[in-house]
Each structure stands twice: as C-alpha cells, then as structure tokens.
Amino acid sequence: MMSKKDNKGFRIPDLTRVAGPISSIGAIVVGLIIGLIILLIANPSKALEGFGWIIGGSLQSPKDIGNVLYYATPIIMTGLSVAFAFRTSLFNIGASGQFIMGAVGAVIVGVHGKFLGSFQWVAALLASMVFGALWALIPGILKAFYNVNEVISFIMTNYIGMYLANILVRETVYHKLTNRSLPVAATANIPKMGMDKLFPESMANGGFIIAVLIAILVYILLNKTTFGFELKACGFNKDASRYAGINAKKNIVLSLLIAGALAGIGGGLLYLAGSGKYIYVEDVLAAEGFTGISVALLGMSHPIGTLFAGLFIAYITVGGSYMQLAGFVPEIIDIITATIIYFAAFALILRSVLQRFRFRKAGDKS
Amino acid sequence: MEYIIEMLNIVKEFPGIRANDDITLQVKKGEIHALLGENGAGKSTLMSVLFGMYKPESGTIKLRGQEVHISGPKMANELGIGMVHQHFKLVHNFTVLQNIILGVETTKNGFLKIDEARKKVMALSEQYGLKVDPDALISDITVGMQQRVEILKMLYRDNEILIFDEPTAVLTPQEIDELMTIMKGLAAEGKSIVFITHKLEEIKRVADRCTVLRRGKSIGTVNVADVTIEQMSEMMVGRKVILHVEKAQMDAGKPVLEVKNLTIRSERAKKNKVNNLSLEVREGEIVCIAGVDGNGQSELIYAISGLVPVNEGQIILKGEDITNKSIRYRNVHGLSHIPEDRHKLGLVLDYSLAENLILMEYFEPRFQKGGFLRNNEIIKHANKLIEQFDIRSSEGYKTRVRSMSGGNQQKAIAARELSRDPDLLLAVQPTRGLDVGAIEYMHKQIVRARDNGKAVLVVSFELSEVMRLADRILVMFEGEIVANVRPSEVTENELGLYMAGAKRGDAG
To answer: Are A262 and A81 in contact (CB under 8 A)?
Structure first.
C-alpha cells in the first residue's frame, strides 16, 4: 500500500473537492463565450453592448435584482426536486407535471379558501406540496414495486398532469373570458417578508426566502440524517444498500414523494407570488420543470449548488431581456443556457476523469 | 544465455510517489520469469512502462540487446510482446476464432479470408496443446478456455515475449494445473514468459527465476530452485510471514446456524441451485465450504443472509427460524457477512471510510439521535476501527473508499463485520485478490472470531486456504454437500475429486 501518508513531500491537491464548482464555473464561462460569438455573428457592431446587458443587465437597479430572485424561485424548487431524485439515482423528468399540479392545488385553495383568513397562503402552499407529491407518487410506486422505468412514467405523467390541470382549472377556478384561472385571494398571496422594501417595484416576495429555507432543509436532510444516509447509499450502490438491510422500495417511493413535493411547492410559490400569474388552459408543458433539470445539473445535484445555479439562470434571463435594447432577440439567452448545460454535463465527465486521474496517481493501481 | 528483454534501472514517478524506483528486470530467452510483489508494489506500473503506456523518467529497455523506445501497446505488439490480462479482453458475442484474429484479420479485397486464419489457429492450438473450440461463442465457454483463447491471441500475433498478469486468480485447481503445463510447454518451445503473481506456490512450481518488488523497489532476482517459499515471502513482504494458520484445538459448542433441507430453484435451468441441503455450524467452529465456483455456494450464502428468497427448507439462527425474516433483522440478530464481491455488495465506494464503517449500524442509537447522524460518534468509531484493524488510507476516516487499495477495503469490511460482535460470521472468498500480508491478517481475524466462540462459515475456492483454516470441510457439488470431513482426514487430492463430483462421501 503506497498511500500519500507515506510521502512527506509533494501532496496531490484534492482536486475532486473543488472540481464541482470549478467545472460548473468553467461551463458557465464557455457558455458565455459561445453566446458572445453568436452575438458577434448576428450583429458585430452591437455584440459587445448586447453582451454587456447579459452580464450586467440584472444589476442596474434593486428592481432588477428583485426580479432575478422572483424568477429564480420556481426554478430553484424544480431544480431541488430533480437534484433530490438524482441523489437516489432516479431521474425526475416529471418535475413539469408535478409543478403544474402543485400550481393547480395552490390556486384552488387560493381562490376558494378565503375562509382561512391569513392562513390561506400557508394552506395553499401546503396544497401545492401535497398535489406535487401525490403526482410523483404514481411513478414512484410503479418504479419501486413493478420496476417500471421512471423516465417513461414521468414523461407520461407530465402530459396527463398538463391535461388534468386544464380540466381542474376549468371545473373549479375558470375565468371563461380570459381562458385562464381566476385570480387568487389577496390573503393567498405569499407575504412580501420585507422583500418589497429591499427591492422596491420588483416582483420579489417571500417565496424566495421560503425557497432558500427549503434548500437548506434539503441539505440537512441529505447530509445530516439517517434518512439521507439511506437515500444516498441507495443512489450510490443499490446492492450494497440491500446487503446493509436498507429497504430500497421504501426509499424510492419516499425519495420521489419528496421530489414531487418540492416541484409542487415551486408551482405554488410562482402562482401565489402576487405577480399576476394565471394558469392558462392550454396544451403546453410547464417549462419550469425542464429548466429544473438544467439547474440541478449546473448545481451538481447539491442543494446549495442548485440554489446558486437557479439564481444564475434567472440572472442571465433577466439581463438577457434587456438585450432587446441592443436589437437582439432574448432567445439568445436560451442558446447560452443550453450551451452551459451541455458543458455542465461535460464537466461531470471531466470531474470523473479528474477523480480517476487522482486516484491512479495516488498509487492505487488495482 | 543472453537476455531477450531487459528493463534497466527503470524509474517512474507519479506526483508524490515513486512507483518504480530503479527497477531492473532481465528475462532470458525460453525462461519463465516470475515477477513477485504485493498489491501496489509497482508490478503493473512496470508492465505499463514496458507497453509504452507510461514513459519512464529514466532507464532503458533493451530487446535482444538493442535499445528500443516503445511508444505504445501497438508497437510493443509489433516487437513481439503480448499480455494476458487478469480480466480478459474478449468480445463475448464473437466466436473463439473471431476473437483471436480480431485486429489482425487476413483479408483479400476487403473480404475476410477466415479459412487461412482458422488453419493457423488450429495449428497453434495443436502445437502448444491449447484445446479450444474455434466456433464456440466466448460467452458459452469456461473461464479456463477463455484464457487459452487469450494465449492463442498472443501466439497468433507471433509474440515471443508473453506476459501473464495474475493468470490463476480466476481458475479452479484443475485449470491451474493445465495452465502450468501450458506455460512450461510454451517455454520449452522457446517463448519467454513473465509471470506476474503473488502466489508463491505457483512460482515454485513453474518459474525458473523470480524478481521481487517491494514498495516500488527491486529487492532482488533469485533462482527459484535455490530459495524456499518462506524466503520469497519474506523478500516480498519485508518481514517473516506465518504462512500456516496458528490455531489451538477447540471443541465446538452449541449449534448457531442450522440449515435444514434448503432448496433454491433456478429460474432458467431445471437443476436446483441448492438442492435439499442441510448443514450446521457450531460455536467456536470454522466450517469451510470447498467447491468449484458456481456449484451453489453463493446462493447458499445469500439465502442465509437473506439476499435471495428460499424456495424450500429452513434457516435457523440460534434456535430461531429466520427463513422469512428481513435482511435487517438478521443483521441485528447476530449475523455478519463478509461478501464475495466487496465492490458490489460490501461497500458503498463513493462513501467515506467512516460512513462505510457504520453501514450496518447507522440506525443504532449510538450513531443517531432523533434521525440525525451523530458525527462525532461516527468519527470516533471510525478512528477506533482504523487503529484496531490497521486500515491504511490517505486521509483517514474521510477517505473515499473507492481510492483505497483492495486489501484495505477488505480490512474495512472485516473491521465493520467483526466489530459488530456477531454470533455467526459468513465469509465468502475473504482473501480473494489480497496479498500475502493481508491474507495472513484476514486468517488471523477469522481464527480470532472462532476462538471467541463465534460460529464461522467460510466459502473458498482455494484448497490451500480451506485446508489451513477449517475445523471441518464441506464440499459442495451441484447444489449438494458431497463430503463432510476434517482437514486432518483428507488430502487436497481427495478434495479435488469430491469437488469434481467424481467421489461422494458421507454428507451427514
């Protein structure tokens, strides 16, 4: 055994510990450079101005910063949802369905629950959580007890969720003239929690604070509890977990239940934000669910990483909307985001290469 | 006699480590040259240098007296150097013949000319006594035959220098005998062989000379005939090693494990994997199950530990019927299990050492309070076991287990399972892939558990291990126990006959 301990001299720095953040940041840099190249191709004379908007557009005023927090809130939640399932090596591609079901749950309580008074927003948020969780429970049970691939059942529940949401809106909270849900009661809106003071005129509200608290909660759950220990063990090595007497079926169901609840709360936080958001009766899957996959990837499936990844995506989205001032279409932001995700995925590979490299050098050749 | 290949004063450094420190290896034409060393001694690095996969910091390689610079495996091949890897590199859904010619196909106008190749392969097979069926699929043939295919691959490429990387690790005793004969035949035909191993008996049987490596340094080259096994092991490990297991006489006590008429059906085959099998393991007794791999040993152990369901029969632990109890229930009621596949079952490789050491007990009050892990206790526990079981790693309890050597991974499992103070210890292939020092260690631990009155059930495919360790030997053949003997009453030869199903004893 030639461990590093035997060598007094040069120590190999532990690259793997920092490889996560470094590779994510690297992906971001490369994504931004490619965005700049696209801008240069589209309109060389205005490219730098447009790029300036991407980088700095969100920092112009407290209002812009507040809007970044507002946009970040739902995608942080769907990101957490995807990241949580990832840790149990399950791919929650169904966050979109859970998100919209959560939104419907929140809006129903938000419209019809006026009798709850000042607790209405809490009840509405709980409803979003329950709706999202139950919507993920179906694929969870199919996976755990019948070994149905969760990716397939999640994609199916995305569409079923979308149509079911349309039916539920039409039956319970429909405003026919605008073809969308009725506005929620004022008491159903999430309190500002001082965010309106910090970021005047913006759409920021207490939802962001709730999302941050939930991210911290998820971190604690995953890293400090026996439940998290079991979940991660199942994710890393299913066979060894079974050998250790861990009930894998129970963990699959619970993991997806929690993932669904997180995505559902994301739907609740968005539609209870008091920003004039309504659920339209249309055949479109909720984009936040899929952005959540990007956010989780960029955040390396770490709860706190996901928090920052969500903030970053929101940051360039808000900045990108100002790009129109320089004559660019804001869709360029989607291209940049996509590039970043590609490279973030690439970074994952790079990370495992780094890991292998380091271990080999550490003298273990078996 | 001149040297066919010489590696002179090779130095290969990795950041922080001198993997090869001034190593010289000189192989004569037509000899079998053993390269002996523990895991991590630098054997693999040296061979990677020979194949051009690593560029050494200093040192030269000479082929037939001429200095050569080998740029990569392809060039090594062209120079006539070939290797049989420990894990075979064969395409499983190709036939034997297709695998042999893969990469050096004879073609005409872009079409394969397989008949010529077949002739050459058959001629080689005849010449060296390497029996293969050229049209069988790799997935259908035995491990021993797969190895012969690998050897034929080297011969087909006209390699003169053949490197065998731990070739016996995957073979049964009979297959090992065959391989030894083949190797001697190859050497007699003028091929030069480098035989990488840490099994001393095998060196003694076939090798002419032996170069010993330890911690990246060359300890020396000896004529195998002039040294004893004990001397070689001392050269390898750097201290005296007790090869036989010191074990006091002990009387077995009450039965701890009783297996009654156990049957496990096979999903595909008609034959049961375990067929109406009964056995008993008592306090203070090591029972070894001998047998060729695949005769139902794994299924038996998995049934006892709860990993596979039982079709018929009963498993009784300390008088309690646990046949239908959960894995967790068995784990907390006195059963410990050192599994065969430490990467698949025994460890969560991406967890730290500390986390792996509590894998079976994280839910116990000493490691958690209200569902929250008690980190201080976990670290204290890890440090205690690291100290007590001498588990070596780069960063102590924080080390990712994936980065630890095989021997230390096995020590970690042993530490975890033995520290739980089990009544019954199941150990499957507990020393597989370990070097002499680690084997000695594992054996000591197992004997200590037995001396403390534990019941121990060991499954091993290595007869020497069975003979050394067992108080009682059970031989398993096709899902049944065909012999129940004491090591003093039986020879290895006889056990071999039982294992092959050629002989049946009193199985009671």
So the answer is: yes
C-alpha distance across the termini of chain B, in Å: 58
Ordered strands of the B81-84 beta sheet: B66-68, B58-63, B3-14, B17-28, B217-223, B209-214, B32-36, B192-197, B161-165, B81-84
Domain assignment present for residue A8? The answer is no
Evaluate if residue A183 carries a pLDDT over 50: yes
The whole-angstrom distance between B120's CA and the closest CA on chain A is: 35
Asked if the Cβ–Cβ distance from B307 to A242 is below 8 Å, we say yes
* Residue A5 falls inside a structural domain: no
CB atoms within 10 A of CB A297: 25
- DSSP β-ladder status, B424-428 and B455-459: parallel
Please, what sign has the CA dihedral across residues A287, A291, A292, A293?
A: positive
Reading the block at residue B462, the tokens are 């290595």
How distant is the Cα of A113 from the closest Cα of chain B, in angstroms? 35
**Between vectors from CA B195 to CA B197 and to CA B138, what angle results, nearest 5°?**
90
- Residues B117 and B106 sit within 8 Å (Cβ to Cβ): yes
C-beta neighbour count of A37 within 10 angstroms = 12
Closest-CA distance, A254 to chain B, in angstroms, reads: 15
Provide the residue range defining the domain that includes A160: 19-357
Instruction: Name the residue with tokens 């009964």.
Output: B278
Whether residue B394 and residue A362 make contact (CB cut-off 8 A), yes or no, is yes
- How many structural domains is chain A composed of? 1
Enumerate the β-bridge partners of residue B82: B162
Numbered residues of chain A with Cβ closer than 8 Å to any chain B Cβ: 1-5, 7, 9-12, 224-227, 229-230, 232-233, 236-237, 239-247, 358-366
User: Which residues of chain B make contact with A237, given a CB cutoff of 8 A?
Assistant: 344, 347-350
CATH of the domain at A230: 1.10.3470
CA dist A109 → A97, A120, A125, A134, A189 (Å):
19, 7, 9, 16, 11
Q: How far separated are the first and last CA of chain A, in Å rounded? A: 11
ipTM of predicted assembly, 2 dp:
0.81
3-state secondary structure B256-287: EEEEEEEEECCCCCCCCCEEEEEEEEECCEEE
Let me know if residue A76 belongs to a domain.
yes
Taking CB atoms and an 8 Å cutoff, what residues of chain B touch A238?
A: none
Do the Cβ atoms of A243 and B215 come within 8 Å?
A: no
* Tally of CB atoms within 10 A around B485: 18
For each successive 10 residues of chain B (508 residues), what is the average pLDDT?
Answer: 87 80 92 86 86 88 91 89 84 90 81 85 88 86 84 91 84 81 91 88 92 89 91 82 72 91 84 92 94 86 94 95 95 93 89 95 94 95 92 87 83 93 93 77 90 93 86 92 91 81 68
Q: Tell me, what's the pLDDT at A10?
A: 39
Contact residues on chain B for A358, CB-CB shorter than 8 A: 403
Helices first, then strands: H and E counts in chain B: 16, 24
What CA–CA distance (Å, rounded) separates B472 from B486? 5
pLDDT 10s digits, A77-117: 999 999 999 988 899 999 999 999 999 999 999 999 999 99
User: Angle at which helices A62-87 and A95-112 pack, to 10 degrees?
Assistant: 120
Measured between beta carbons, which residues in chain A are less than 8 angstroms from residue B349?
236-237
Residues B504, B508: Cα–Cα separation, whole Å: 11
B332: exposed, middle or buried (C-beta count within 10 Å: 0-12, 13-18, 19+)?
Answer: middle
Chain A hits for B345, CB-CB cut-off 8 Å, are 239-240, 243
Yes or no, beta carbons of A240 and B407 under 8 Å apart: no
In a domain, A2, yes or no: no
Question: A249: which residues sit within 8 A by CB, 6+ positions away?
Answer: A144, A145
